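Box 3.1 A note on notation
Throughout this textbook, protein chains are presented in two layers. The first layer is the amino acid sequence; the second is a C-alpha cell string describing backbone geometry. Keep the layers aligned when reading.
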Amino acid sequence: MKFSFLTYQFARYPLEYCFYMAKEYGFNGVEVWGARPHAYAYDMDNTMIRQVIDWKKKYGIEISMFTPEILAYPYSLTSASLKERQETNEYLIKSVEVAAAIGTDKMQITAKHPGYGRDREEVWDVLTEGVGKLCKRAEELGVDIILESLSPSEGNTITNADDIVKLQKRVGSKALCTMIDVVPPFIANEPYSEYFDKLNGTMKYVHICNSDGATEFHMQLDDPKGVLPLIDFFRILKRNKYDGWCSTELLAPYFRDPELYLSQSMRAIEYICKEAQIVKEI
C-alpha cells in the first residue's frame, strides 16, 4: 500500500516544500491541491508543469492524485447559475488536462451543497451533465475521475455509496470512479464495505484521518478524542484486497505547524500498518 498526503495541509508553503516533506517523512507521494499557491489549473503553464515533473524526479515522489478546489467559491457542479456551472466545467476540464500533464491518472471531484430551495431532480440533471462532459475528456486522457461522497453538512447530493452508483449509471462512463473518505460514511452510519460491495471495482482511493463521530472535522490519526478504529478500517481494506493509495487529509487547525502533524501522521501510519499487517511500500 502507498501513502501520500493532501498538500492543502501545507497551504502556507510553496508546492515544492510538500515534495521535500514527503521524502523526509517517508511518504510515497503527494496529493496535489489544485489551488493557489500550489497548482491552480489556470496557473499551470508548460513551465510550471515541467517544474512539477522535475520535483517528482528530484525527490523521488509520485503524485497520487490531483485535487482541484471545487468545494469553495467560485466553482460548483450543482450551482443554480448556468454561468457558474459552465465556468466550473471549463475549469475541471482544464484541471484534468493538468492532471494528465503532471503524470497522475486520478483527479478528485465533489458535489458541494447546491443551495436551499432547489429542485432535487434539476440538481441531479445538471450534475449528470457536468460530470458527463468531464468524464468524456478524462477518458481521452486516461485519467480516472474520483468522486468523493460528502458529509451532510457539506452537501446533500452525493453522500453515500448508493448516490455514487446512481451517478455512475446516469453518466455511463468508465472514467467515473470513487473513493472512501473515512469521515462521511462513519458519521452517516454507513458500512465501509458498501463502497466495495456496490461499486464494482471502481473504488480506487482512500482519504484517512480520524473523526469525532458527529461532524465533518478531520482529526489527526492518533488524536485521543478520535472515535474511528483505524486499525480495523485497514483490516477491512485488506479483506477487500485494496492495495492502492491512502492519503492523509488534514485541514484546520493543522495549518499552524503542518510538518509537526505530518510527522505524527507517519508515526501513526507505521503503527497501524504493523497492527493490521499491512505492507507499506518503501
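The longest strand covers residues 62-68. Strands lie at 2-5, 29-34, 62-68, 106-109, 144-147, 176-181, 203-208, 245-248.
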